[in-house]
Specification:
242 residues; alpha/beta; seven-stranded mixed β-sheet; rRNA_ssu_MeTfrase_G; methyltransferase
Length: 242
């Protein structure tokens, strides 16, 4: 008797019909990546075995929809890349962009390095580290993130990495509007910015992928003094007297 849960080493389901429309010529690489996630990804604890049957709809296609927000030749940093969602998906789908996968945990960066090599993705670079460690050194057009942190904390990590006019693209769920409404004031204190919630992949992804987009309107540089600490906690804290 089986539990109905895919075991490590299981073969992922065949890609659904819309996968060809989404990935086009990159579909063979997407299939190979799905196999890596279903096998090594589960064995190494990067994804849960219950995610294997829904790898395509919930993960690969959902992440791929974000590519319509990236202009040709864009530079992108994916923070907290984990198993490569969404950064590796976007990198294999869009060979014209430069993608940096920024991930602090060694076991994850080892997997990402192996995946990038197996999939032959010269436009994708894996870096081990935290986003805040790259502040003042790394600047990019876009920062992507999925299931990394609440919006205020995520913005505190991401906005200092963006050039003027660059955008944080945070993949969120059904409560995206409420999360943005609660966080928008704190986010704008980090750097002057405009924020909105958009849904991408309509007609290809069901439901459409929800993205909170925060576009900075100031030149690159450090955030407003003292505001980054607040963003990391997602709350206002009183200072202690010394």
């Amino acid at each position: 008797m089986t539990s109905g849960v895919e075991e490590p080493g299981a073969v992922p389901p065949a890609p659904p019909a819309q996968a060809e429309a989404v990935f086009g010529d990159s579909l063979p690489k997407a299939r190979r990546y799905a196999e890596l996630l279903a096998d090594d990804g589960v064995r190494r604890g990067l994804i849960g075995p219950r995610e294997v049957p829904r790898l395509w709809e919930r993960h690969l296609i959902n992440c791929a929809a974000v590519e319509e927000l990236l202009p040709e030749g864009a530079e992108v940093v994916d923070i907290g890349s984990g198993a490569g969602l969404p950064g590796l998906v976007l990198g294999l789908l869009r060979p014209d962009i430069r993608m940096i996968l920024l991930e602090p945990l060694l076991r994850r960066t080892v997997f990402l390095d192996e995946a990038v090599g197996l999939l032959d993705l010269p436009n994708v670079e894996v870096r081990r580290g935290r986003a805040e460690e790259a502040h003042g050194e790394l600047y990019t057009d876009f920062v992507t993130a999925r299931a990394v942190a609440p919006l205020p904390r995520l913005a505190g990590w991401a906005l200092p990495l963006l050039r003027k006019g660059g955008s944080l693209l945070a993949l969120k769920g059904e409560q995206a509007e409420a999360e943005l409404a609660a966080a928008e004031q704190d986010v704008s204190k980090l750097r002057p910015s405009v924020s909105d919630v958009i849904r991408v992949g309509r007609g290809k992804v069901d439901p459409a992928t929800t993205v909170v987009r925060v576009t900075v309107t100031s030149d690159g540089g450090p955030p407003v003094p003292g505001s980054q600490k607040k963003a990391r906690s997602g709350k206002k804290k009183r200072g202690r007297k010394r």
